[in-house]
Every structure is written in structure tokens, then in C-alpha cells.
Write the C-alpha cells for this entry.
Amino acid sequence: MVRTGPRQMALSFDDAPVWDGVRLETAIAEAALRPVRLTLTENRSVLLTVRREKGTAFVRLHHMFLHAPMNVVRAIARGLKSRTSRAADSVVRRFMNENLHRVRRVKRELPALLTRGSHHDLLRVFESLNLRFFSDRLEVPITWGRGFGRARRGGLTFGSYDPVLGLIRIHPVLDRPEVPRYFLESVVYHEMLHHHMGGVPDRAGRTVYHTRAFRAAEARYPHHREALAWEKRNLRYLLRASQALDRKRRKDKRR
């Protein structure tokens, strides 16, 4: 029996779904050769989870999977039979990345993009990396952020990737002459990889972004180790600079 969570709005897609809930549950169960109980959700953070109990797989899928082709359904089923199927993970991950537009409940518009800073031009950095590492094929907007970098283990979040907007934001603390080009490139490259590679569901169904494949790709940046060493040496300075930016922002806001 297919369950749908309470108070969940139905998404209005432009194209008709391939499945209804009952048929999708049956297709997954037949391909997996095991009982399946499917719940359809509109959870925007977790698109797929699996819980196994007494021989039955309890699967929660975002409504986007009603549009999944048969090869994706088979990949989900392979994941139920084998928790280590990288091929299945790759198929499902690609489908989720290509269908993130179906996750949106409320239309979100891109903010005004600011790429030219006082000392660094993000667009030039992006274009250079795109040509050197992605055959000039990545199409993703980039902008300087507003300076709300989150603390993480005594550090800063220098960049972020928004998978719904498809937007890269870079912390403005890096727009200063003391920050070498290779360090800024390493941050931008990291976020470009997030756009390019997406995430992989783990055994609990949570999406993991910093996988071994991701770390291997990240290490292919020629100045990767040099950038890590520079961050370690200059982290306290960047933290102080970030705090100064935050104080200035709050002061300007009160005016």
C-alpha cells in the first residue's frame, strides 16, 4: 500500500508522470524480488530513503520518481538487493540531479549576480576552471555572497552550492589581495564539482556529497595541497576578517 505523508501538496509538473504510486511500488518490488512498501513525499532535503525490516523494504521517494524511466526503477531495486551497487547509485544520482526542478514548491529566482570584486573577478576564475577541467561545458551562475559564512570546526564556509537554484556563492572574505588566486580557484573548483557530480545516497538513504570519488576529483586540482596548507596558515586571519565584514554589515544595516 502506497502512503503519502500528511499535509503534502501535489506538485504540478509540466509533463505527465510515468507512474502512479501503486504501479511504481509494484515495479520496484518485482525488480527487487522482495516486498516493498512505498511512501511518496515532497521532502526537499531527502529525496530517497530505505529502511529494511523483517524482509520488507520501506522506501520513501520524492514525487519526482513518478517520472522515473524504467532503468532508474531497476537501479533503485538493485540498491535494495545490494547496498554497495555503485552503478545503481550513479543512475539514481543522475536522475535526481537532472530532476531537481521538480523539487521546487515555490519558484525561487536567482539573486543579482556580483562577480567582479575589488581584487578578484569570479567570472574569470570560473571561466578558466571550466575550460581547464570541464571542457568548457559547465553552465552554472556564480556570485560573491553576502558574508554569512557558517562556522565549521573553528573555520569558515568559503563557498556553497545551491542545488535548487543551481548557484555557486563565494564568501566575500576571499576578495582581498592577500588571498592568492590558487586558493580562490580551489574553493570555486570545489563548488563546481558539487554542481557536476551531485550527491550519492548512502545506506541510510541520506545524500552524501563528499564521497571518495569527489575527493579524488578535488585532488586533481594542481594546487590542492598548497591551498590546504595556505588555509591552515591563514585561517585565523580570515576568521578575523570575516568577523570585521559581519560587523560592518550590521552597522550598515542599522543606518
Remarks:
- The two ends are 58 Å apart (CA to CA).
- The longest strand covers residues 56-62.
